[in-house]
Amino acid sequence: MSEQYFPALQKFTVLDLGMVLLPVASQMEASCLVIQLVQEQTKEPSKNPLLGKKRALLLSEPSLLRTVQQIPGVGKVKAPLLLQKFPSIQQLSNASIGELEQVVGQAVAQQIHAFFTQPR
Length: 120
Hints:
Layout: H1 6-16, H2 27-43, H3 62-69, H4 78-85, H5 89-94, H6 97-104, H7 106-117
Helix pairs in contact: 3-4, 6-7
Pfam families: HHH_2, PND
Protein name: FAAP24 isoform 3
GO molecular function: chromatin binding
């Protein structure tokens, strides 16, 4: 895997597979972790503590709330409002600026949209 595909792999892992994103030191470490998790998933899915739920994450999940609070422009007040309208990270990341503006206003909506769409 090359550097150019690493962000796409991270997005795929969180949004498509529903897994928790863990900080890793390198692409190699990330690749090994994903392979290990997929292999474990095929053995016993219920014993994989890192595998997220296939359905939308609930607002009551503290890890989801903390994650959304870390998005630039979003804090403890705006995060719950966003999660009421967009109950998963995938829905939030796919929201248009117009949809976000209805919840948090224009400036913060642009920050959120840029966070999810601009390459890092």
